[in-house]
């Protein structure tokens, strides 16, 4: 399909709009932050004394993998669960040939992943 703007412009515009929506939804941001704090405390208790030596390399690797999986899945679920509320707007704008599906989903992921990585 041909779109009136480039894929990069679509991505920038949609990311800006999604970021504003995320910032305006203060309760969701607070709930995510509280969940992150609880997960961090839980992981801190589990992996408190693993140390820095090579004998605990499996524990260190497990901690890193579990932390990354948490970041990915928590944010992916947020994107998936928010779609039904935005479906009517998305379908109207997609049918009007405003942007591609790929630009929409990439912008949702960028806007939701980057704040949680910090």
TrEMBL record:
Record bears the keyword Repressor: no
Disulfide bond is among the record's keywords: no
Keywords: ATP-binding, Membrane, Nucleotide-binding, Transmembrane, Transmembrane helix, Transport
TM ranges: 30-50, 62-83
All copies of domain ABC-2 type transporter transmembrane, residue ranges: 10-115
Organism: Culex pipiens (House mosquito)
Location (main, coarse): membrane
Membrane-protein topology: Multi-pass membrane protein
GO molecular-function term, one example from the UniProt record: ATP binding
One GO term describing the cellular component: plasma membrane
Subcellular location: Membrane
Tree of life domain: Eukaryota
InterPro entries associated with the record: ABC2_TM, ABCG_transporters
Name this polypeptide is given: ATP-binding cassette sub-family G member 4
């Amino acid at each position: 399909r041909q779109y009136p703007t480039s894929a990069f412009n679509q991505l920038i515009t949609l990311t800006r709009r999604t970021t504003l929506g995320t910032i305006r939804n203060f309760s969701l941001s607070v709930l995510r932050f509280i969940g992150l704090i609880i997960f961090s405390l839980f992981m801190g208790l589990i992996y408190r004394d693993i140390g820095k030596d090579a004998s605990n390399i499996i524990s260190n690797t497990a901690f890193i993998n579990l932390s990354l999986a948490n970041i990915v899945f928590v944010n992916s679920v947020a994107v998936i669960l928010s779609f039904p509320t935005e479906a009517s707007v998305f379908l109207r704008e997609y049918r009007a040939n405003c942007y591609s599906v790929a630009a929409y989903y990439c912008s949702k992921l960028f806007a939701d992943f980057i704040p949680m990585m910090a």
